Amino acid sequence: MGKLKPLLPIGDETVVETVLKEYLASSLVEVALVLGCRADDVKKTIDEKISSNKLKVVVNEDFKKEMLSSIQVGLAEIKDTEGILIGLGDQVLITCDIINELTENYIKGKVLIPTFQGRKGHPIIIPYTMRNEILAMDAEKTTLKDVLGRHSDTINFLEMKSDRVLIDMDTKEEYERIKDIWKK
């Protein structure tokens, strides 16, 4: 997109502020935010605007690798828990209500994937028991989808009322669409 996504404006805030506020307002016990490119710039914004004992900010020094490397950095920070919610930093339309609906419907030992009209979305919840397996993976040769494929018998799907679980912003057009939705 040409600009640093976490610092793009959404309403009166940045993407990272908007996403974090919803995660921190949810029932999640702890939130690990993984930063990559220009981590210092993003961290400065977070430090100035957000304060929470639930939040741990970590940096993925190998952020140019595949997304699994960032997931691994975040997983390494999570303490023993029943499930681990993995969200995307560019899903600014995910609300604390969506997060809470997912956590309320999570079954220990299972994977939970939200869907909308049958299409899979994010954030997902994985069982803590998958943590070490994911940490041991080669992030350049494996994806989270590969790991989930090996555990397909443990996957539950939750049909959501909103397509927000499908919307992220990988292109300028998607960002503009999200800004339009945000105004409403």
Nutshell version of this structure?
By secondary structure, the chain is α/β, with parallel strands linked by helices.
Can you describe what's shown?
The protein has 184 residues and is of the alpha/beta class. The protein has one domain: Alpha-Beta Complex (Spore Coat Polysaccharide Biosynthesis Protein SpsA, Chain A). Helices cover 36% and strands 19% of the residues. The chain has a three-stranded mixed sheet with strand order 7-6-9, with no helix packed on it. A two-stranded antiparallel ribbon has the order 1-2. A hairpin with a 2-residue loop joins strand 1 and strand 2. The longest helix has 12 residues, at 172-183.
Percent strand: 15-25%
Task: Please give the number of β-strands.
Answer: 9
Instruction: Give the number of helices.
Output: 7
**Unreliable segments (pLDDT under 50, ≥5 consecutive)?**
none
Can you give keywords for this protein?
184 residues, alpha/beta, Spore Coat Polysaccharide Biosynthesis Protein SpsA, Chain A, three-stranded mixed sheet, 7 helices, 19% strand
What secondary-structure arrangement, pairings included, does this model have?
Elements (H helix, E strand, L loop, with lengths): L8 E2 L2 E2 H11 L5 E5 L3 H11 L5 E5 L7 H11 L5 E4 L9 H10 L5 E6 L2 E2 L3 E4 L3 H5 L8 H7 L4 E5 L12 H12 L1
Parallel strand pairs: 3-4, 6-9
Antiparallel strand pairs: 1-2, 5-8, 6-7
